[in-house]
Each structure stands twice: as C-alpha cells, then as structure tokens.
Amino acid sequence: MCTLEKRGNIYLLTLTGSGEHRFNPSLLSSLRAALSSLLCSSHAPNSALITCAEGKFFSNGFDQSWVRSAPPSQHRIISDLLRGLISDYLSLPMPTVCAVTGHAAAAGCALVLAHDYVVMREDRGFFYMSELDVGLKFVKYFEVFFNEKIPDNQTRRDVLLRSARVTAREAMARGIVDRAAQGIEGTIEEALRLAEEVAATVSDGSKLAEKRKLMFSETWRHVSAAGGSKL
Amino acid sequence: MCTLEKRGRVLILTLTGSGEHRLGPGLISSLRSALATARSDPTVAALVTAGEGRFFSNGLDLAWAKNSSEGISTLVRLVKPLIADLISLPMPTVAAVTGHASAAGMMLAVAHDYVYMRGDRGVLYMSELDIGLPFPDYFMDLMQAKITDPRTLRDVTLRAKKITGTEAKERGIVDKVCQSASETVAEAVKMAEELAGRNWDKGVYASIRLSVYPKLCKSLEIPQESDEAVRKHFASRL
C-alpha cells in the first residue's frame, strides 16, 4: 500500500503499485501508521517528508467499491480516516512536500493540499475535484480545509464549483502548486530539491508544526481529535 | 421591470427599460419572482442576468426611500433575500454586466457565480463612500467572499474606485470581458449553456456553492446541511 524510506534527511512516503491508490481503510491506515512513526519519535533537525506515488495516478480519491460493499454505518470510517490523515500532516514536525506524480482527483486532491509545498508533473495528469461531476457534497471539515487552502475566489470556484481539470501549469499560475516538472522521476527529483531547500531552514520541526496548525486554525479545529467537532 | 426568456436550458433574466434599474420594492419583488421561476422549472439548468440600456443596475432606489417613511433600511432589508436567492439558486448563474453596476447593483452582479462584463463602457462602482452611506453587513460579506485580492477589495470599498470591465478582469472580479452589451450577453449565454451541459445535480450544485461561500451563506441566513445529512445523501447515491 505504501512504503516509507529515508534518503539522507528526507523521508519518502510512496503510495505503491500501479493502481489508482484509492482511499479505503487499509490504505488510509497504512499512511497514518507510516506518519505516526514520524509524529512520535524525535528527529534529526532539518528533515522533510515527500509523499509521492507509483504509476499513472497519485490518488483518485475514495474507494467507491469498498464503500458499496460496506454497511452504511461504516461509510464514515474512510471520511474519518482521511480527516485523521489531514490532522497528521498538519501536525508533522517537519516541512512536507507533495510530489504529484500522476492524476489527483477528489479526496486525492485533499491529500495533495495537506502538504506545505506541491510539485506537480506537468507533461501529464490533472488536479481535479470531481465531486460536483459525480454528485457528492462536502462534509464540514473538508469544506473548511479547501477554503483555507484555496482562498482565491475564482480559483476555488473553478476547482470546486466547476470541477475543472487543472494542469500543473495552470495550478502554478493559480497558486495551488509551487513547481512543475517533467515525468514521474523528474517530479520526484524536483520535490527532493525543494525539500532539501526548505529542510535546510527548519531546525525545530515541532515549532513549525505549531505554526502550521495556527496558520490553518479552522481546519485544525475541525480535524484534530482534541478540539475537533464531533459531527 | 424584468423579463424571462428561455433558450434551451438557459433562462435569461433581463432588467428591462432604458432607466437605471434601481432596486426598489417593485423590481426586487419581480426579480425574486423570476428567480423562483428559475428554481421551480426542472428544464432550466442555468441562469443569465442582463440589463437593457446604459445600466445593469445603479443600486437602491434612493428616491423611493426618500419619499417613503420606511427609508433605505427597508430596501437594505428587502435586497438581502434577493441576494440569498441567488447564492442558494440550485444552478450555475452568469451575470452579463451590460452597463454600469453600482452599489447594490454591483452586489447583484457579483452575487452570480460568473461575471461577464462589457469592456467598452460601464463601470463597477461601490459608491457608498462617495455618497455617505454605510455598507450593510451582508454587502461586505459578499465582497469579501467574491473579491479576495486585498488591494482590489480595498480599492473597491475604501476608495470607491470606478472599475472598468478590463480592469475588473485583471483584478479577478470579472471572468470575461466583451466588446459590447450584446456580445456580453451572447458570451454569457454560451457559458451558461456549457455549464448546463455538464448536467450537474442541482441539489449538489447548490450545496457545493454554500461550501465555497460558508461565511456568506451564514450572513445571508441560508441554512447548510449537517454532516449527517451529507452522509445520508452519499449513502442514497450508492
């Protein structure tokens, strides 16, 4: 489902396999387990985390086939797990870079935006909030998160209310993505470069995490277990 | 006061006549009635609002307010549900700003999802500072929702700047600038047709719009569904 490796001071979290990396309880729990090892232990200063994926897809969102096979009372499990995953990323005591190596759709886009920085593949792939196209509404934490991460009216409207398929170049122009690169390897290499640059400036990761939670305080309020809403 | 014309799945609402289309009780009521028609017609999938003549709308009917014992505060109170109707309308909305849009008239324009405007004439203008009127709270909430560039918001509200269509496009208020009133309407209708062609579920569209503007919808007293209701909707669609 995912692997966590270390390259020097940079952690690389990879969604493995050639599939769509759709979010079901297994994948979300694996991601949370990988991150928990980074949340709990103390680290060398000047670390960073990159999240990337193998294959054509970064992540295509929630696993609808899992949902269809699960009893209705369990559906909220994946929504709650994603909420926990976002709280993990917000709490991570190091800078985070998303290497969007393939298509990101719906909840997959939430994983992208949960990072501090985004590097996206430009020769292929879209950032696509497909919810409107497939007929899904937003729960509160999701809505709050997208409002804090995409404050520009026209961009947020196009992404959420027009279900636009956004390329890396457009995403950069509109402030969703920081850098674009060619190919999967190129995207990961650029992400490594960016991660090294940022990691060099952050020696106290726990202070970074405090500031990040303060910067996205409304999201933090809705996703954290402690302060979180119990809707 | 206003007319409705159906073109395919697009409803075109036109503020008629060569006057200023000022928002008094009569016009507000006609507009709300037109929006109710759009809402209730299952064959309508998008709305375009346009104006005839030199003005899109020049704001509240201050002359009416002066002659009435109820005054401006009544008009402010009456316009709020009109704006709420637009923000809660379960379909994409495109404003074709065919002439000047001032104060409440500018609010009417930016309350649409997309704003198309002519570039050859006409300005967007929040005149309140110039004429000594306060902003109703919901005006500011609407502006903060739709004008997210801080310097643009400042120029609009604290400088009462008159902004042409071209400048409004550069500054993120307007989506497309056209060469004439008729081209603005034609392009707005084309956009509305494209949006209608996406065949979005109306209830989902309305819900997502509220998610895009949660503070505004609170200000306009538009209720949002609970997470439980959203989850039930999700389960019902499987």
Characterize this entry briefly.
The complex is a heterodimer of chains A (231) and B (238). Chain A is α/β, with parallel strands linked by helices.
The SSE string of chain B, one letter per element, is EEHEEHHEEHEEHHHEHEHHHH
* Rg of chain B computed from alpha carbons, rounded to a whole number of angstroms: 17 Å
Most extensive chain contact? A-B, 32 and 32 residues
| General form of chain B | globular
Assign an overall shape of chain A: globular
Number of strands of chain A: 10
The percentage of residues in β strands of chain A lies in: 15-25%
Distance between the termini of chain B: 45 Å
Please give the order of strands in the largest beta sheet of chain A: 1-2-3-5-7-10
Percentage of residues assigned to helices of chain B: 40-55%
N/C terminus separation of chain A: 29 Å
Total number of strands of chain B: 10
Q: Total number of helical segments of chain A?
A: 11
State mean pLDDT of chain A (0 to 100 scale). 95
Task: Report on the biggest sheet of chain B.
Answer: 6 strands, mixed
Describe this structure in words.
- The complex is a heterodimer of chains A (about 230) and B (about 240).
- With about 230 residues, chain A is an alpha/beta fold.
- Helices cover about 45% and strands about 20% of the residues of chain A.
- Chain A is built from eleven helices and ten strands.
- Residues about 225-230 of chain A have low confidence and may be disordered.
- Chain B has helices at about 25-40, 60-65, 70-85, 105-110, 130, 135-145, 150-160, 165-170, 180-195, 200-210, 215-220, 225-235; strands at about 1-5, 10-15, 45-50, 55, 95, 100, 115-120, 125, 160-165, 175-180.
- The mean pLDDT of chain B is about 95.
- Classes of the chains: A alpha/beta (about 230), B alpha/beta (about 240).
- At the A-B interface, helix 2, helix 5, helix 6 and helix 7 of A face helix 10 and helix 12 of B.
